Structures are given as C-alpha cells and as structure tokens.
Amino acid sequence: MAFIDSHTHLWFKGAVTQEMRENWSRVGYEIPVLEKDQVIREMDEADLEFVVIIAYPMRRLWGAREDFAIRMIQEARDFPNRFSIVGGVEVNQLTLEETRKWLEAQYSAGVSGFKLHPPHMWIKPNDYREEERGMNQLELLYEFAQDHDLPVVIHTGTSFFLPARNKYGDPIYLDDVSVDFPRLKIIMAHLGRPNWVETAFQLLRIRKNIMGDLSSIPPRRMLEYFPRLEEVSDKLLYGSDSGGPGVKGLKAHLEGFLQVKIQESSKVKIAHDNPKMVFRTIER
C-alpha cells in the first residue's frame, strides 16, 4: 500500500529566492533545497503516494513571502498527482485587502490548505477575537478556508529557531478557533510537543473539527507522548516534517512509524485514509 506524508518541508530549488537563502544563516538552520526528480525518487523508495509540502510565508525567519506557495506549485506541475502544497498568509504583516488578494491568488493556483505558525509569526491563533487583538486579517483567513473547504494547519509546540517566541505554541488557543469556526478543518501540527501534549490530546477528544498531525514527533517516542494514541486514530495524520531538523528522511521516518506498536488498521488510517480525506494534490 502507498502512504501519504501530510507534513514536509521539501522545498524545490526553482522556488527558493536569494532573499530566502540569505535569511537562513541567522535563524540557526538551513532547510535543504532539492531537485524535483530527487524528491520523486525518495518518495518512490518510501512507497509514498503523495506528500504535502508546507510553503508558508515568514519574513523574519525564511525571508519567504506569500508568492512562495505559488512558485512551489509551478515547480511541482510536472508531477501534479504526487504533491500537495499548503500555502499561507502572514496576517500581521498584511492589510485586510492584501490578505484577501493572496488567499484568492493561492487558492486559484491550487493550494490544498493554509499554514499558520504562531511562534514564528508572533500571534495567537485566536487573535481575531476582540478580547485579544481584534485582527480582522486572521478572521478572514479562517472564513476563507472554511468557505472553500480547505484545512488550516496550525503549528503547536515549541520551535528552536532563533526568532521563535514559544509562548505562542500553546494549543489551547485552538479551542476558540474550533468553537468560532465550526465548519473549519483545523490541523493541529505537532500536537503540542513536547510541552503541551496533554492539552493537544484533550482537544482532539472534545472538538470535532480538530485533527492532529504527528510530524516532528520521533516514532520511537510516539506512545510515550500519546499512550492512548489509538483512541483518536480517526483524527490523526501521519507526517514526517522531512526537511526540518532531526528528520532522517521520508523513508526512514515512515519505516519508524510503521514499527510503532499499534494496530495495522490504525496505521492505515493515520498514514493513508485520513490524510487523503483532508488534502488534495495539485491535480484536483
């Protein structure tokens, strides 16, 4: 059976700008820049049907802007059934009209969702609320995604990159988003690891529209973090975070996950069925 990796950072050479390369030296990590054919070979070796590539904007970190996702889609057009591209908007750097413009442009280009990274963007996922910051751009992001049946992937947990503010990584703020946008597909990336895994697990249990991806959690520690993982297997997505720090590669990470001591049927749900229900490849 072929599997699906729902969270990677496999960035193609043709989509990476000089500004992005120059920024990496100051954040403490350089994301590998890859040729498409190389990625396809690695996917075939790992028996992956398709991978989801996160291509979100981040001025202070990667130097990436909202057109990054569109360039990634253009680069991936040769293999439209093998890639799914998640974009995003840096809401606290844009006006309301600019936010709308980029959401529409990315949607027209073929993104399969949007990414919000609170520790990198220095915002809380519920900053659209009046008692928080009243950020209309963030509300627009959720409304647009909800209306167009696209998931929003929200980073939870810590980040070691130098500009990150980890106080924003607490998943509890997703609770407001879940309540206020009940039709929105919310993907809680990394499940709050390592500080907030109990909060993340509880949100999976009580909020119908919150799912979680297992990316960046070492497979050998998965049941240590989540001993009751199989109770929520219908709401989990396999992801490797490949391209990010500490991940050995698409094949090695998937092999590690397939060795986790849970039922085979749960592995199929997490690494194939659930991701396929949430993400679309470029070839819609």
UniProtKB/TrEMBL annotation:
This is Amidohydrolase. It comes from the Archaea. Gene3D superfamilies: Metal-dependent hydrolases (3.20.20.140). It comes from Metallosphaera hakonensis JCM 8857 = DSM 7519. The keyword Hydrolase applies. Keywords: Hydrolase, Lyase. GO terms for molecular function: carboxy-lyase activity; hydrolase activity. Residues 4-280 form the Amidohydrolase-related domain. InterPro entries: ACMSD, Amidohydro-rel, Metal_Hydrolase. It holds the Pfam family Amidohydro_2.
